[in-house]
Amino acid sequence: MKKSFYLVLSLLVLASMALASCAPPAAQAPVTTDLKEEEFTGLAIAAPDCEYGGMIKEIKAVDEFTVQFTFCAPDPAFPSKAAFTAFSIQPKEWIKAAMESREILEKPIGTGPYYIESWNRGDSIVFKRFDDYWGEKAITDTLVFRWSTEGAARKLELESATVDGIDNPSPDDFEALRANPDVALYDREAMNIFYLGFTNTFEPFDDVNVRKAISMGIDRQRLVDNFYPAGSSVASHFTPCSVANGCVGDEWYEFDPVAAKAMLAEAGFPDGFTTKIYFRDVFRSYLPEPSLVATDVQAQLKENLNIDAEIVVMESGAFIEESSAGRLDGLYLLGWNADYPHITNFLDYHFTNTNPQFGTPFPEIYEKLAAAAQIADPAEAESLYVEANNAIKELVPMIPVAHGGSATAFRADVEGAHASPLGNEYMAVMKPGDRTTFVWMQNAEPISVYCNDETDGESLRACEQVIESLLSYEVGGTDVQPGLATACEPNDDLTVWTCKLREGVKFHNGFTLDADDVVTSWGVAWDAANPLHIGNTGAFEYFTYLWGGLLNAAPAE
């Protein structure tokens, strides 16, 4: 009996030891065991010429730790773009294995200070510290992302100490949070734009005078006064004035309901018309009270122009997809937070000749932008941006409404807390008192965490804790600094940028970063004919708009 007991006990101990030896360390990312690390081969992808319409000519792995980008025209904004999460790097092996299965949408393998341990859809994402991180390791072992669309709910969670930090407190709560000694409020610079969009391929928005009448018939100051916090302003231009050349050219139309109604009548609608107002019920720094703003716009359209507008609330992912594709047949509420601090991020993304969002693009706008984007000196480029901004005002592809002030709020004992003007708060530097878990609550659940094919800010923030790009932005700021590359240097005319990678950088699965990973990560997004050009929606919008178009893309119908 004793022998049997000890035999069973011994077997249990051995089994336990075997399981323990097989399990990954508590603070290490789980290894994807079915992948084999491939050797460096020197990948390259190139366009046959520059007639395809994009800016990129070639992406080439010169050697194991050198990547060269060749462009069809000078690109002085390359460092700002290359620091953005939409151009982040994952191992070529994982991209090949996980893109078609779409595992990559929820299981990124990056090089960042955290990796994703689990994602409970509808509830939370749990991140764990990556102890083999090449840079300064995350202070806190566990990071949790939660979300709520209601500003009051986020505030309650913070004041109840069930979360350590929240994004975008409601404007009405700013003063109460400032007065609470257990909470610290951090103002965020208003580097964003909220606009009313419409698509000019739908009637009656195909008539510039209809668009102009609506622009003059909306009291934008009333919207800012009633629904925005301190630090917000009515937009004089699409781009915030803090961005070089953002506010050159003529200011936007003043509120003039009498002139607006007369113009609408001249356009053939003396009694107004019926339309819809689409929005997603997601609190953003550029739109802190979406449902209230939508209701007020509805009331103003009726009061000032006799336009009857039905309000339509859409799911966030569907709204972004439909608005981006130019498939919404009414007005819609949307906006933009700066991804990188350059005017191309605002104007070139929205008004390029390849963006169908506002309908048929206007050459009076995109031709000036294409010329200006090749000029490094803002003073030299100013005259082109004057012309582009004036054309935007004259043609009214949308109505710029507000640059929204916003904030983050944290428990008072959180060290390293901050608000980023780019909305990319970096949790690795935050220490939540004596707690080993940092809990963050934002406005909405990420759509996916394959951010090479996302534009949603809630998704991008989650990605930025896990995956990294060649360059990076300073924590809480906008200056570009080294990232996975120690430097990216241009040739004399800014048509070739050469990036030197850090050596010995480890991915979360233990693989080592090399130049092939960079070429693959960029290439599957740039080349529409690549069999791995799948992503989430497959639009790869940042590649399309910031680099002038995709290689091998099907011609527009």
Index terms:
globular, alpha+beta, D-Maltodextrin-Binding Protein, domain 2, 7-stranded mixed β-sheet, Dipeptide-binding Protein, domain 3, disordered N terminus, 557 residues
Describe this entry's structure for a reader.
With 557 residues, this protein is an alpha+beta fold. The protein has three domains: 40-103 and 487-557, no CATH class; 112-188 and 406-466, D-Maltodextrin-Binding Protein, domain 2; 192-403, Dipeptide-binding Protein, Domain 3 (Dipeptide-binding Protein, domain 3). It is built from 16 helices and 24 strands. The protein has helices at 2-22, 78-82, 92-98, 151-159, 174-179, 208-217, 220-227, 257-266, 290-305, 316-324, 343-351, 363-372, 378-395, 457-463, 515-526, 541-546, and strands spanning 44-46, 56-63, 66-71, 88-89, 114-120, 124-129, 142-147, 165-167, 183-188, 192-197, 233-234, 274-280, 308-314, 331-337, 398-403, 406-411, 414-415, 431-432, 437-442, 468-469, 471-473, 480-482, 485-490, 496-501. A seven-stranded mixed beta sheet has the order 5-6-7-19-8-16-9. A hairpin with a 2-residue loop joins strand 2 and strand 3 (66-71). It is globular. It starts with a helix and ends in an 11-residue tail after the last helix. Mean pLDDT is 92; it is low at 1-27.
